[in-house]
């Protein structure tokens, strides 16, 4: 692909609001995970909750979009001047030429979960203030962001579970390459809800402790939430050396099982291979890999197979989910932004919560932060249904 | 701004009173009157038994229209479905499954079965499709609410523009049970699959050229069909399908987002 520039980017997660807080937490090896006291959930697990989402208010004419997920989107858009950057791009390029490509897995379903508790005892009807389109529907977040900026171009939600907001980069890149738009708001917004808390619990995939990716005793994931965005534009001929570029994207399907990865990670490997080919890079060109690394026994073992088969055992890798939790449909974008930060400051964040390495996982897993100039980094995202995506990001110089 | 183009290799369709593409074609070109009848979803024989038992209505619907498009394409020549890129698009996913999860979460026990949970992802149909056909090619699953067909068409054509040799687009929506039905008035299941390939010189296949437009969306003369178009997002494709059935060249405007429509120029 022709490289695209991430002209602006931002992330809000349990590590904090915006890039400064996120980087400070990563540098301090701080985890945002805490015991779950979310809503009415009664589960022994840890979560990565964003503070004070409930206090966020949406702009008045867009009140029908009110739900936790869109409040989190709004909170995320307000960090690092991202909203101002979008307004400036719209002014420059026109409302039809800025597309919206956002990933989510559960959108505002929390609103529906709560509405079901308040059904009319006689008719079973949901409460009168319940708005399916503005909250629950998967499109609601992309619709909200599109309307908030007064856009009239293509807008879509990519909904491939935990790879959703990695795949948005690939979808936006295609629409830019096909000259349907001149800029894209890409990103992911996913928020805590009971469906995922109880759902992962039923699959015995959530850990009772803070998740421990790549640890011998890893026993599941910790669910997080996040809003992460980037503004993607065609790269100009001359670039600041610190400019962050999307160099390649690779997508594949496992064709194996709905909720378990292929044991040898064949789909994961193919997604990484395609990202390298798309960027015209060789495995040895990659300086750091931000792993999907959920902390479930099967994910980490399959991903380790896939990474070592393609890269050998030397490339530094880590999962940042011990810090952020698994932000599900927002994980791809959150980790792409973490990779952009890593490239900018030359930081390879060490994976948290690892006490004893699993000797069967042969990759070069970092357990402490390392500082070194980075040129190319890879970010992995794999989802239920076997939907895989790898992104290759780089610095201009 | 450039337009997006693609040829239609084959189609699959299933909807109320429209049992498959050949039945729909006869209705849309006026040979046969449309008779309203509830959509009958076939069992997805292509799935292994365990997955077949777990497949809900939207999965059956998506697999049925996709299988029909594949069967028509195979009758014209070889096709490797294991290497076929897919674009799944739906306005809402599996309403029945979602309803059951919300009921359970509103109860004291809050027990969700693992199958219910993994079927709750919007890309469930794509996951089952991959398992059914051993397809390891890239697949995406989109949602743009009522604009989901248009969003899927744009994505599929953009993939062709970026070099994909073929893309199977599957757009499908199934009815929501009460109480969600009160807010999501989709009364029955409708699905459409289009196997799209890059435009080739001298090809006899119908070719589409798609661009963003401010013109109003086309409607259908038949009241029953128009009611399907207006009420089921995947059926927003019907004015295009009508033109294909009638083998009539020209431009048809399809509904997309509130702020923009899709002008589709059909060259037959």
Summarize, please:
The complex is a heterodimer of chains A (397) and B (268). Chain A is of the alpha/beta class and 397 residues long. Chain A contains 11 helices and 17 strands.
Molecular structure report:
The complex is a heterodimer of chains A (397) and B (268). With 397 residues, chain A is of the alpha/beta class. Chain A has one domain: 3-Layer(aba) Sandwich (Peroxisomal Thiolase, Chain A, domain 1). Chain A contains 11 helices and 17 strands. Chain A has helices spanning 18-27, 68-77, 82-93, 109-117, 140-148, 164-177, 194-202, 266-279, 297-311, 321-324, 331-345; strands spanning 4-13, 16-17, 34-35, 46-48, 98-103, 155-158, 183-190, 223-224, 226-234, 244-253, 288-290, 316-318, 347-348, 364-365, 370-371, 376-383, 387-395. In chain A, strands 1, 2, 5, 6, 7, 9, 10, 11, 12, 14, 16 and 17 form a 12-stranded mixed beta sheet that branches. In chain A, strands 3-4-8 form a 3-stranded mixed beta sheet, with no helix packed on it. In chain A, strand 1 (4-13) and strand 2 (16-17) form a beta hairpin. The mean pLDDT of chain A is 98. With 268 residues, chain B is α+β, with helices and mostly antiparallel strands. Chain B has a single domain (11-204), classed as 3-Layer(aba) Sandwich (Peroxisomal Thiolase, Chain A, domain 1), CATH 3.40.47. Chain B has 9 helices and 8 strands. In chain B, strands 3-2-4-5-1-6-8-7 form an 8-stranded mixed beta sheet. Chain B is globular and about 60 Å long. Classes of the chains: A alpha/beta (397), B alpha+beta (268). The interface between A and B is large, with 67 and 67 residues. Strand 6 (155-158) of chain A pairs antiparallel with strand 3 (139-143) of chain B.
